[in-house]
Request: fold
Amino acid sequence: MTSKPEWLNSFLSLLSSSSSECLACGKQGRASSLSPVLCVNCAAIIPWIRTPRCPKCGRHVGCPDCSRGGEPSHILYNRSAVAYNSVMRDWLGRYKYRGNERYAPLLGLMLEKAYQMLKVQHEDAVYQNAFIRPRSAFPFRRSTSTVSWKADLLVPVPVSEPRLVERGFNQAERLAAELSWRTGIPVLPLLVRTHHTDKQSFKGRAERLTNMKHAFGPNTSIIENYSNWLMEITDALSLPAVSIDSAVHDTKHTRPVRIIIVDDIYTTGSTIRACADSVRQMTEACSFSSDIYSLTWARS
Ligand SMILES: [Zn+2]
Ligand SMILES: [Zn+2]
Reply:
């Protein structure tokens, strides 16, 4: 039997490299419409959260934390792309702990689905005036529901220095970068981890909460950039002065800066709340108000 000619070998190798070996199951299979790196079977088992049961934290199951009032929160609402089941835990583990970077674009595009949910939620909320804080009822504002809602800034949850050394990257920062690339929303690493928190799972709820409260602080190296950026977007934040009260007719209204905290997973929300608190204070220090949301890839 004669060996195949050189051109045929290169042609075949080209074919085999373009036929898709699934990132998740490793089998050759038909690429899914979601992503070419994922086969149809693996894409089919993604536990998407399409309609969150909790409008506040985006949880897919009943949520006692939010319904009993929970901790005071500066987060308007959280949205997560998927429920954190064993398959999702495996995917995140391969990315976060075993450094398989090929997961980054996939998780990023999944996170964008959560962003779309947040957007729709907000647009609906404006329309129904259901989730808007009372202060927006006066001065009376024209509904912005006809205008597409867009966030102004993404802020990743920081990891501690030892974690960074251990993993080589901050998964939240990568996710924020992916989302930024997909949506055009800028990213600023406004926060730093002020102290290394130990394995959270071994702590009681109360201890975990107090521990978290002081875990984040402003990233001093970026405060000046942040302040400059806020000045730059001031015009974009100003709303047309629409008021039934002629006395305030000429007042220039400025809407709050819309900031999204980004992380890989939402468990109790204490991390997100602590970050939101710091971001709100930093923004207030620059004389701006903020509406803070969060997006996480998974919700446990
Ligand atoms: Zn697969
Ligand atoms: Zn909830």
